[in-house]
């Protein structure tokens, strides 16, 4: 685990990348920020977490780190000990955790509650939607420390790496770590485009309702796009036993043929809209 701090004092803000070793985009964003070492208004922790898994380009070495919190220092599993160490380092921090998916190219935010902080960040981060995962937080970083996860795009893509940088800069600006002009200059320097999208005035919130199971090691094909409404009775995937039909209407989230071992992804309901205030 690589832990760096910008600024003096005890940090209450952190950015974490590389919880999963096969998601390099967030890691390159954090490394570039460490290298640039910009002036900060308040201290921030920048952490690259699972270096062993990153080196091997695998999701995890022994067990999924984002199912291992709060962790246990006496366990043999690498990720159990790592979860414990990371939770300890992050105590008292509000954390942005950078991830990427096999299911959706556009950035979205994953949260365990929709409160004023999340509404503020939803309005100020370049994300197209917010996913409320509050029924499914067991073992995840959410369970250990106040966390905002962002899915930056497709695993291993340049677009996900650029989005990770843009999201990190927008987060650090929203949390008053980076002065607005410093964040804007860095975005230009890194070539990741503007931090604001003036055309986006509202952000939908989807709440994950249930997991859509699959049989491990069988071939599936997903036939619909994430966040696009699936009607009751609609065929949304094919698998070893034929068509997979929606028993009720839902919005697919994190749906992909190969993203998970024993599920295709989640069925969500669209809950509400967070509107963006006029940007300052
Ligand atoms: Zn991940």
Automatic annotation (TrEMBL):
One of its GO terms (cellular component) is cytosol. It holds the Pfam family AstE_AspA_cat. Its cofactor is Zn(2+). GO terms for molecular function: hydrolase activity, acting on ester bonds; metal ion binding. InterPro entries: AspA/AstE_fam, AstE_AspA_cat. Residues 10-113 form the Succinylglutamate desuccinylase/Aspartoacylase catalytic domain. Signal peptide: none annotated. Keywords: Hydrolase, Metal-binding, Zinc. This is Succinylglutamate desuccinylase/aspartoacylase family protein. It comes from Natranaeroarchaeum aerophilus.
